[in-house]
Amino acid sequence: MRITNLLLAGSASALLLAACTPVDAPTTTPNQRTKEGALTGAGIGALAGVLTGEGGKDKLDRAVVGAVAGGLIGGAVGANLDRQAADLQARISDSRIRIINEGNQLRVVMPEGILFATDSAAVQPSIQNDLFAVADNLNRYPNTRVEIVGHTDNTGSASYNQDLSERRAAAVAALLRNAGVSGARIVSYGRGESMPTASNLTPEGRQQNRRVEILIIPTG
């Protein structure tokens, strides 16, 4: 009995691992994230069935039912993200803006240089049309919540960088709200210099670390 449970749990875990593609890895398969979402959902559903079943056949039956239900839900979420990412990419004009489909959310990475002047939290007019495109996309996909996160490099004091990151995230959030996105869907906060994506030892690395990220997270 215990061996059967371990085999079922192991199979579910294998599905989860198989579904994981590195966040920034290029994909050549159409609807890759849809398929990954289905696999991930199936793995989670199967594992839940293993853990909640009462006996050998019951556990197996629950695992199968859970895998099917989880696969349908995960696939639907993945399909929506695929469509939303494609729609957003078609509307964004600045090629420096990165749209990353992480399977369970979209991450829109906007470099500081296109959003703000140095040490400023005022959104530059030249990028506002792209932010309006983001707002329109959010309004056409209402079943999501939005987290806007500001990041800086480590130049200057940590307290100043934290404050600047918060003000920049709030400025982007305000523009999206003014463009019609419900304020109830949006939260903004800053991470200061605490979450670099590159080394702060080089100018190129510091430039990458100065950014605002818009996280688009499905809610249903």
From TrEMBL:
Q: Does the keyword Glycosyltransferase apply?
A: no
Keyword Manganese included in the entry's annotation: no
Please provide the record's keywords in A-Z order. Cell outer membrane, Lipoprotein, Membrane, Signal
| Domain OmpA-like: start-end pairs | 103-220
* A Pfam family it matches: Gly-zipper_YMGG
Chief subcellular location:
membrane
Q: Which domain of life is it from?
A: Bacteria
Q: State the compartments where it is located.
A: Cell outer membrane
Signal peptide interval = 1-25
Q: Which GO terms describe its cellular component?
A: cell outer membrane
What InterPro entries does the database record attribute to this sequence? Bact_OuterMem_StrucFunc (IPR050330), Gly-zipper_YMGG (IPR027367), OMP_bac (IPR006664), OmpA-like (IPR006665), OMPA-like_CS (IPR006690), OmpA-like_sf (IPR036737)
Query: What PANTHER family does the record tag this protein with?
Result: LIPOPROTEIN YIAD-RELATED, STATOR ELEMENT OF FLAGELLAR MOTOR COMPLEX
Q: What is this protein called?
A: Putative lipoprotein YiaD
